[in-house]
Amino acid sequence: MADVSARGRSYRYVGPVELKTAVRPGGGGCRISSAADFGSWIAEQSAAELAEPFTFVVGMDGVLRLAPRRSEHVACAGGDMVLSAGEMSFVREADRWVVSEVSNQSTGYRPDISSWSEVARALDDVELGRPSGFTHEVVFRRCPDCQEHNIVREDDFVCVFCGSDLPAAWNVDPTA
Prior knowledge:
The protein is an alpha+beta fold. The protein contains five helices and seven strands.
């Protein structure tokens, strides 16, 4: 595993404060640091759970953490900063599990699409088959004028709240 200093941008939680204050110490998603960890975790999932995506984060240690879909990303991360966050689905192909869909859809962390490299590394570390990138990319931007957070759709970099132009580069967290 690479040194954290060699990793990409980190993301702090920027969602509703009440969700972060509800995070229990020592909580968080299931830490998946090996193929055996994933095998044990996936065996515990019901067919109903497998039918929808799971919440995921890649922690600052580069390790994948998984939680049920209706979990908050900040809870999955134990309240900590992350290298990426989103939703992930798995399917069985031949004799192994693979990631069928993965997005950076996390309104709590709002990671840039460039965080894919951290997701890919975490999945490769546990020997999971994966796509070559996010199957659904969400482009997050903060409006420099009104400070509202936006999801950019169809490359229309205009704030839906005030009509101002949005920057081309990720800028959600002003302290980053």
